[in-house]
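for the recovery benchmark. tokens below, seq after
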């Protein structure tokens, strides 16, 4: 029997939508001098000063309690801020994961000491986190992790390796899913999460260069890294429940829909400037607009579920799979259009943006869970396997 609940169409409340004007004006000015190809990097781009400015305006940790430096507002307020960051292509990668996942997870499962220590600097835009989930030869099969933390007299000893870790070379901390008992064959049992200071002895971060020539991902090695008792999040063995709750935040947001939006906007500006009214151009624009509108409605509906305290893990997997498929299709579809035109008629800046997105688009269906794993989750949610 299907366990996939129907999504109920929702709208962003007026008290949260009103944020859009101020956030949009600030971000538009902040990126005014950045070319489209650079803005297209958006949440993988890093600008620490911009993150601190956003933190000072209360736009990081906006859903977190004021007692820890947060804004105390709804998840819809954060949705508006995120959407505008993507819309303008703001380089917000410094605080992105800490704001989206790490701080809410520490708030939900961490000790009071962890909340007091880690959350306020995240809200100020001063602290960056990465997520240590994937491992070599495991892909998105998180339950098969082999990195291990072993109890010692003073805390824990961490050994192993993580891979495809976004911005690990930029971050101060990692939240790592590791095994504290049993073996990889035990699957969900025996997994725990730790906050790892990446400056500790025994930690080595090796950036991975991608097709664009940049290094958004890294390998991270742990060679007998000594962790204090206070590094454990929650109780030992609760890591799997923590991760599954966390992934609903990672997979359902607008960043799983709008990663190619800067390229699409640049293409629209180009065809509008030409006065291109050809039916093929209109069909292509209509196809992209239609898919974007549908996926955005689904994403907002998931935000409504999160606002109700639910954890729509399977539904988020579906939106993430559909969203990243569109994100990857946009560069392909626009390339077909642009290269069918007269040579030299397409602005070099538009071509540069297209080339950059084409090179990084394969990663869209890797980060946050591969397509095969997500479709397996959806199939189980529908009772098909």
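predicted aa per position
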């Amino acid at each position: 029997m299907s366990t996939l609940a129907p999504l109920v169409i929702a709208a962003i409340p007026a008290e949260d939508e009103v944020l859009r004007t101020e956030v949009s004006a600030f971000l538009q000015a902040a990126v005014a001098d950045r070319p489209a190809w650079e803005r297209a990097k958006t949440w993988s781009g890093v600008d620490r000063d911009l993150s601190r400015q956003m933190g000072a305006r209360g736009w990081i940790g906006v859903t977190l309690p004021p007692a820890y430096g947060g804004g105390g507002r709804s998840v819809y307020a954060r949705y508006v801020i995120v959407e505008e960051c993507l819309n303008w292509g703001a380089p917000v990668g410094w605080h992105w994961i800490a704001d989206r996942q790490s701080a809410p997870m520490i708030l939900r499962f961490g000790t009071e000491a962890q909340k007091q220590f880690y959350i306020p600097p995240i809200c100020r835009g001063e602290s960056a986190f990465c997520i240590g989930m994937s491992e070599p030869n495991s892909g998105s099969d998180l339950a098969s992790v082999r990195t291990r933390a072993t109890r010692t007299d003073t805390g824990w000893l961490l050994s192993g390796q993580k891979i495809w870790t976004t911005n690990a070379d930029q971050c101060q901390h990692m939240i790592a899913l590791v095994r504290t008992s049993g073996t990889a064959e035990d699957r969900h049992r025996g997994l725990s999460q730790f906050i790892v200071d990446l400056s500790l002895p025994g930690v080595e971060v090796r950036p991975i260069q991608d097709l664009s020539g940049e290094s958004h991902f890294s390998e991270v090695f742990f060679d007998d890294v000594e962790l204090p008792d206070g590094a454990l999040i929650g109780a030992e063995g609760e890591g799997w429940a923590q991760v599954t709750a966390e992934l609903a935040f990672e997979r359902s947001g607008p960043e799983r829909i709008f990663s190619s939006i800067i390229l699409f906007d640049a293409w629209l500006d180009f065809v509008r400037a030409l006065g291109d009214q050809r039916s093929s151009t209109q069909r292509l624009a209509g196809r992209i607009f239609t898919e974007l509108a549908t996926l955005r409605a689904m994403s907002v509906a998931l935000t409504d579920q999160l606002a109700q305290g639910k954890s729509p893990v399977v539904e988020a997997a579906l939106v993430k799979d559909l969203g990243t498929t569109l994100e990857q299709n946009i560069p392909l579809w626009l390339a077909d259009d642009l290269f069918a035109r007269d040579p030299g008629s397409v602005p070099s800046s538009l071509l540069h943006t297209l080339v950059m997105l084409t090179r990084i688009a394969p990663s869209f269906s890797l980060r946050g869970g591969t397509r095969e794993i997500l479709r397996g989750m959806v199939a189980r949610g529908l009772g098909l396997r």
